[in-house]
Write a structure and sequence with these properties.
Number of helices: 9
CATH superfamily of the largest domain: NAD(P)-binding Rossmann-like Domain
Radius of gyration: 19 Å
Enzyme class: isomerase
Structural class: alpha/beta
Pfam families: Epimerase
Organism: Methylacidiphilum kamchatkense Kam1
Mean pLDDT: 96
CATH topology of the largest domain: Rossmann fold
Low-confidence stretches: none
Distance between the termini: 37 Å
Keywords: Isomerase
Number of strands: 15
Number of domains: 2
Order of helices and strands: EHEEHEHEEHEEHEEEHEEHEEHH
Bound molecules: nicotinamide-adenine-dinucleotide
Protein name: ADP-L-glycero-D-manno-heptose 6-epimerase
Length: 309
């Protein structure tokens, strides 16, 4: 289908799962990964066989590595992903300026570009998040993702022949995320605390809801975006169903056969989202994407994968 595919951020959590699925689905295709290993890990790539370019995209010399029309499909996932980094220059340079360089290189080509945006662009909004809602990023990370969407919109205008789509991933969890440490999913963080016999620590009173989405569903939606070649600029990718942190503890207790109880403490952040939930109407319409994993099924699959512990 595609002779060459480029995945940036392929040593990271979602990127490495994407790499493995691409190799399973399209074994004939040449796969190239660009990752500077600032947060990703070789451990995620042990079962993959692709060319890995270990470079920082902010200073990347595109012309040195590639000719203009060489790559028909790009998945751009590389990003500073620690959402608590408040160094605005770092967030903007790493996420926005690196993306600008990428777009400049592919400008004028028909290359299909799919890039990772984030539910963080909704920021202060609470409840069901729809693409047509006014974005309200609450931190530099969310702001940088929104700026990427603006760049993509301008690129699309200048390159009407090209297709570019941003995917607003919600709270992704699953295999190959352990390298993220304190930025890993709450599923992993809570599971670890339970496993160590500690009371999982939650902001009072654990009722905040998130759209937790299993990485296999995220990978499916990401590949579907390429296969369907849909003309849409931005889509939500989540489970479409919000669950509370207390729900997570309850499901983990069932799966791990434990009786852990949360220890609540006051939230230190002046702003903390109460509820996120992906509205999937457009995603379903354009991609035919239907999430396969409920939170229960996803955590069970994660546990069985051997990557949770
Ligand atoms: N995991 C989530 O819940 C979630 C939610 C919303 C959006 N996203 C987005 O999805 C994408 C993948 O996230 P992830 O969870 O896999 O994070 P991750 O940190 O595991 O992966 C990011 C990868 O990008 C690489 N990288 C970072 N800056 C780079 C640079 N300048 N040049 C080259 N490589 C660089 C890192 O080394 C890492 O391997 C990111 O764009 C992130 O913003 C993730």
């Amino acid at each position: 289908m595609w002779k060459k595919i480029l995945v940036t951020g392929g040593a990271g959590f979602i990127g490495s799962n994407l790499v493995h699925e691409i190799q399973r689905m399209f074994p004939e295709c040449d796969l190239i990964v660009i990752d500077d290993f600032s947060s990703g890990s070789f451990k995620n790539m042990l079962a993959s066989h692709c060319d890995v370019i270990a470079e920082d995209l902010y200073s990347f010399q595109w012309e040195y590595y590639f000719s203009k029309n060489e790559i028909p499909l790009v998945f751009h996932l590389a990003s500073l992903t620690d959402t608590t980094v408040v160094d605005e220059r770092r967030q903007m340079q790493n996420n926005v300026e690196a993306f600008r360089k990428l777009l400049r290189f592919f400008s004028g080509t028909p290359t299909r570009i799919i890039y990772a945006s984030s539910a963080a662009v909704y920021g202060k909004a609470s409840g069901r998040n729809r693409i047509q809602d006014q974005p309200h990023p609450a931190n530099p990370y969310g702001f940088s993702k929104l700026q990427m969407e603006h760049l993509a919109a301008a690129y699309s205008k200048e390159n009407p022949q090209a297709r570019i789509t941003g995917l607003r991933y919600f709270n992704v969890y699953g295999p190959r995320e352990a390298h993220k440490g304190k930025s890993s999913s709450m599923i992993l963080q809570i599971a670890k605390q339970i496993k160590e016999g500690k009371a999982p620590r939650l902001f009072s009173f654990g009722e905040q809801k998130r759209d937790f989405v299993y990485v296999a569903d995220v990978v499916k939606a990401t590949i579907l975006t390429a296969i369907k070649d849909c003309p849409v600029a931005v889509l939500n990718v989540g489970s479409g169903c919000a669950k509370s942190f207390n729900d997570v503890i309850q499901i983990l207790n069932q799966i791990l056969k434990t009786e852990a109880k949360a220890e609540y403490f006051p939230c230190p952040y002046p702003f903390y989202q109460v509820h996120t939930e992906a509205d999937l109407e457009l995603t379903q319409y354009h991609l035919g994407y239907i999430p396969e994993y409920s939170l229960e099924r996803g955590i069970e699959a994660y546990f069985k994968s051997g990557w949770l512990f």
